[in-house]
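Why do we care about 3D structure at all? Because function follows from shape, and shape follows, mostly, from sequence. That is the central idea of this module. The next example makes it concrete: a single protein chain, its amino acid sequence, and then its structure expressed as tokens.
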Amino acid sequence: MGTDVHPEPTDGRREQDGQVSARASVPLLDRAEVLRKVYHFFGGLITPGIYLFLTKSQMIPVAAFFMAGVLAFEIARLRIPAFRMWVEAFVPIRFKEFERRRLAGQAFLQIGFFVAILIAQKEVAILAM
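And the structure:
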């Protein structure tokens, strides 16, 4: 037959004049999510920023201290119910649902920073961070 039938996209987009608009499928970020992203952005700059001013041998214990601190915080948050309730009540950064039951991304980020410092040249490690 002479008519082309184009089904509606199933991901929330609408086709108008041959163009597919993604406007309907882009969710807005709420305030807590924006705070979370800002925290991760600036938190991710601290270790590489410090490394700019230190040698590798000076940075290894600093990175180990940060990694140990983040891991201690995360283990306490996961294993001590009163501490977890305090964190959820008073820390303005919202955890993702899956992070409520396991290590948050910051722990893996600090482990990755530490490994990068150990195995790579300074410039490469900073860029990798």
